[in-house]
Amino acid sequence: MRLVKILAVGDVHGFRHLNILLASLKTLINMKPDLIIFAGDMIDGGNIRELRTIMEGIESKFSNVPVISVFGNEEYHEVESELIREYPHITWLNDSITIIYVDEVKVGIVGSRGALEKLTHWQRKNKPVLEKVYRERPRIIENLIREVKKEADITIYLSHYAPTFITVRGEPERILPYMGSRDIEGVLRRTKPDVAIHAHAHNARILEAVLDGVRIYNVSLPARKGVTMINISPKNLSAFMSN
Question: Domain limits at 81?
Answer without folding.
Answer: 4-232
